[in-house]
Design goal:
Layout (H helix, E strand, L loop, with lengths): L3 E8 L4 H10 L3 E2 L4 E9 L4 H8 L4 E8 L8 E8 L4 E8 L1 H10 L1 E3 L3 E18 L2 E13 L5 E3 L3 E8 L4 H7 L9 H10 L2
Antiparallel strand pairs: 1-11, 2-8, 3-4, 3-8, 4-5, 5-6, 7-8, 8-9, 9-10, 9-11
Length: 197
Amino acid sequence: MTFRIEQKLLIDTNQIIDFKKHLEGKKIKKIYHPRKVKSLYFDNHNFEMYNDSIEGLTPRKKIRIRNYPETKNLNYYLEIKISSVEGRFKTSKIINNDHLDNLKTKGIFDVQYGLCKPCLYVIYDREYFQKDDVRISIDNNINYMSSHKKILRRSLGSIVEIKTSISKDLDKLTSDFPFQKTRFSKYCNAVEKVITR
């Protein structure tokens, strides 16, 4: 496993052009074509993953199945994001359609959280940038949808994620991106917009 640093910025959609100009000034280049991302999140009956994330408890997890509609990549990825005392890391494995259907129907059993069922989709457009060991993604047009009732909510603003190795100098990272950092989870925001309303 490889631990990493993750920082998030919540940027008003009207200011995202200025942020991209900042990236250009730092010689940070776009590395992939933008693509749509669709993630199906799982949680247990008490939404403990959501609650642990809100409280900032460790260790905690997020479990999701991700795919990239509107691209040639037809794979589905079962991903587990783990936040521990040591840092954050993610596991990912490709699953086939039969496995996908089985997980949607029967759920996923997790040692920490028990039986977790699908609850929410998070869908957005992502742009990718990189310089050296720092990767930046910009998520726009973020939509949240219930997995069952098909309730749809839209999020205002854009989310910028900055990811780098655990050994990165945090002071340098802060000076390179002098924007306000925030604790933000698209999954938690989706729960608040869709489930709790």
